[in-house]
Amino acid sequence: GWVGRHIKKLNDSTLADYRQQAADARVAAEQSFRSDVKFKMREAIQRVKQEIRDLNNILTSCPAFTNGEKYQFVADVSPTHESLYNLIVAPPEAGAEDLFGRQDVQNNLMALLEDSESGKDRGNNPLEDYRLLFNFDLQIIQGGKVVDYLSKRMGVASNGEHRVPFYVIAGAALATAYRIRPGVPHVGAGLMILDEAFYGMDAQNTYVTATFLKSLGLQLLMAGPD
């Protein structure tokens, strides 16, 4: 009798009326989560591409380095995460495949989410660091043609040729850390401190490297030999 009374009490209450609302809320939450993940990652990808374009525009406008060399940053999609990348950047038009639609990608995505929550494989998860979707390099250009890449030049170039690209990379990294956008007025510090600045580099590379760093909007404080 006691059980019967409680069943009747529950059936007569409005609790059952909320069952469908709860189910609808869960569906809405899942859809919001899925679109939010895709939107934020697509936005981050676009930001990477824009930053690369901005840096390359500055490098294009700088004088040539020694031997007529010019540099350009490149960001190629990492083969490891190419399937995930393609679904993220797919246009949100009718018929476009959903990020969570393909089972293999969904399984991979869920594994990445679980790794992120548990802290497993930290530093190697594209959901935590969208830059892992790309492989970055620096093109070396002469006469309008790509003649080499920094990743391939390592270990075979002269000391000065080794140093110059790393000044370019360090300057770009600092400008990003300071949130300096080329052509956009910047308020606040943008300090780059260089000890024995441009040591081992010839005059041409020294001049162009300093020009590039100043063009980024960095304030240079340099100490060097006489």
Explain what the structure shows.
By secondary structure, the protein is of the alpha+beta class. It has seven helices and five strands, in the order H-H-E-H-H-E-E-H-H-E-H-E. It has helices spanning 2-12, 19-61, 82-89, 103-118, 150-153, 159-177, 203-215; strands at 69-77, 134-142, 145-149, 191-195, 219-223. Strand 2 and strand 3 (145-149) form a beta hairpin. Helix 6 packs parallel to helix 7.
Structure at a glance:
By secondary structure, the protein is α+β, with helices and mostly antiparallel strands. The chain has helices at 2-12, 19-61, 82-89, 103-118, 150-153, 159-177, 203-215, and strands at residues 69-77, 134-142, 145-149, 191-195, 219-223. Helix 6 runs parallel beside helix 7 (203-215).
What distinguishing features does this structure have?
15% strand; 226 residues; 3-stranded antiparallel sheet; single chain; alpha+beta
